[in-house]
Structure formats: structure tokens, C-alpha cells
Design goal:
single chain, Rossmann fold, five-stranded parallel β-sheet, 15 helices, about 25% strand, binds ligand PMT
Length: about 400
Amino acid sequence: MSFLHNKNILLGVTGGIAAYKSVVLVRRLKELGANVQVVMTESAQEFITPLTFQAISGNPVHSSLLDVEAEAAMGHIELARWADAIIIAPATANSMARLANGEADDLLTTICLASNAPLAIAPSMNQAMWSNRATQENLQTLKSRDIEIYGPASGEQACGDVGEGRMLEPEDIVEKLEALFNHQLLSGVRVMVTAGPTQEAIDPVRYISNHSSGKMGYAIAQAALEAGASVSLISGPCALQANNRIQLTHVVSAEEMMTAVHADINDIDIFISVAAVADYRVKQVAEQKLKKHSDSITLELVKNPDILSSVAALDDKPFSVGFAAETEKLEEHARQKLVSKKLDMIVANRVDKSDSGFNSDYNSATVIWGDDSQRFEKSTKSRLASDLLQLIAKHYINNKR
Ligand code: PMT
């Protein structure tokens, strides 16, 4: 069954010659079991009639923001909420510019602003318009907002030019849309994730810890759930809420995390260690609050157990994925950890920037396995988590064969 089965796809059609190809796109989406609503801009209707899309999609076509009747049937906010994904195909240079500017002066741009659904565009324009700096800058803006860019392809254009700017073929767009919903790769698989910091007590009121917020680990746990896995999450202290279908265990120290992990590890297929576990703990935790009698004090620290290494060393070890938090030589240091901890994969991320890594909603990463690696540019942690889970699932499945 296609991942698009039963998915609500809102197709935006803007005014380009490739609009005729979008009819084939709707037909293919329908064949795969998707529900399709079409929103056309005014100029799109110069290229193709709404009636064509209505006949193929089986739904009335939406085109006006200020049409009382249409709003009463399915208003723009309702359409925005309805969509599981929005794809604009073709997306003209003008529509890209208007999206980049956050305009909301017609139905399509308003829906795009009002919807939380993933948004993808399939650009289609003359090659010179595509390579123009203005379009390329708009493209970067759209990418920075996590808008998916499908294509464009290269080749002969309707105007006779040859170059980049052709809309992707409907089959290619469908393939990419399916990948958006490819959530069941881990159906029946049991995934354990560690997240957040650990706190190592100094005395009853003080502790040693780090800046981990838990956001990356919780996003990984959620992405595993969406990929169909049953998920347990061992979390250090943090202020986040997990999906109630995730089995959540709270711990404070590294030793508690170690105990919680090993309590269930024999039932686990994939272990993903996102927690920023304190490498050291205080050797002798003071029973009473330490008094500030002297100008300096010395705390003796002893090494904490390495939880991830202990899991990867098990005879019947789960597929083991580590995270490497680095401030320099990202790939070199991560690769050393991959080897020394005997991991299947490691996700290397930088933790020396304020706009990603620790305690940010954003992150970027390089995933390393064997002699290979794959780079994931900066995106929201939830988007990154979902991309990472797809890659991890692929390797886990290959590994089992
Ligand atoms: O929580 P956020 O604010 O969202 O930030 C996310 C993050 C930066 C914490 C996360 O993306 C991340 O990098 N996690 C790993 C942090 C870390 O401890 O990295 P490390 O390079 O020191 O450790 C390597 C691996 O060994 C990690 O998978 C770690 O979980 C594991 N480890 C480390 C020490 C230890 N005693 N036991 C372990 O299991």
C-alpha cells in the first residue's frame, strides 16, 4: 500500500505552462489512494480550466479567498488544517517570490501561511529566471523555512531554451511525496532512546550537568513512533512532554540511566543514545550542603559508566546508534567514537553554536557509518529526527538481511 493512501494532499497550481502536467499528478495521486484538493491561482486558470482538475480530483476546485460560497463549503483555514501535505506544482518564479515574502493576498498563499503541513514546491520556469539571483535568493529563503524543493529538472523548455527550470515529471513528484509519509519503516521494531542531560549530585542542593534540553532526543523518539516503532524513552531531567504512546522513564544521574537502559535492553532492536551523559560524577557526594568556608574547594570526580559502549558490547546487542557532540574536528572525532564504542552508526553534531545543537530548536548533522557518511543541513530538530530515522531504519533493515 502506498504511503500516500488516505493522505490529504492539497495541490496548488500556479500559472505556468507545466500546469497541464499537474493533471497527471492528480490522477496518479488518486490512483495511490490520496485525497486531493486543488487550489488554483488566477493565472493558472489561463493555462488550464478548473473543470479539468475538478473532474480528475473528484472535488470542486478552490480559487478565491473572498468567495462566500466556497468559504462556507470548505474555508481557507479548514483547507489549511485538512492538508497532510501541500505541494505547489508548477511553482512559478512569481509564486516563489510571494511565498518567500510571506504574502497572503490570494487563497493559495493564505493557505500556505495558515498550514503546519509540510510544504513542497516543484519550480517551473525559464532557465534564466531560475538562475536569476532574485529567484536563487528566494529559493534559499524557502529552504531555510524547511520548504521542500522538488527539482527543477534540466532540459528543453517550452520557450525553446535549454537548461534548468523544467518541472519534475509527475511520477518523480509522487515519489518524493511518498517519501514524506514513509513512516512505517520501523513497524514492529522496538526502539529505545536516551535523551536530555544527566545531573551528578555534589551535595543535596547542587549538581554537575550540561546544557542538553532533551529536544533532540524527544524528537528522535517521536520520529521513531511515527515510523511505526514501539518506543521507550529514558530521559534525564528536562521540561519536555513525550507523546503518551511513548513509554517514558525519568532518571537523574548517569548511573540511574545505565540501570534503566539495561533493565529493558534485551527486548530492544535499535538503541539510539542521544542523552548528554555526564562523563564524570563526584566521588563522594556530601550528605549536607557544603559550606563556603574556604576560597576554593576541590571536587574529586570519577568516571561514569559509558552506557552506549556497554550496550554495544552486549553479545546480543541491538543496532546501536550514538550521537557525537563536538566543538572541533566533527567527523574525525565522531569517527573515533564510532570505532571505539563499536557502533553501527554515529550522528555527529556541533555544539559550539547558539543556533543549533544544545538547547536550540534547530540542528544539523553528519551521519557516519563504515567508510560512508551523509550530511543533513540545518533544519528543525523534528524534521532532522524524521530524516535521521529514515536513514537509521534503512541501515537497520539492511543489517538484518
Ligand atoms: O538535548 P538538546 O538540547 O536537544 O541537545 C542535543 C544534543 C546536542 C545533546 C545531542 O544532539 C547530542 O549530541 N547528544 C550526545 C551528547 C554526548 O554526550 O555526546 P558525546 O560525544 O560526549 O558522547 C558520545 C555518545 O556516547 C553519545 O551517544 C552519548 O549518549 C554516549 N555516552 C556518553 C558518555 C557516557 N557516559 N555514556 C554514554 O552513553
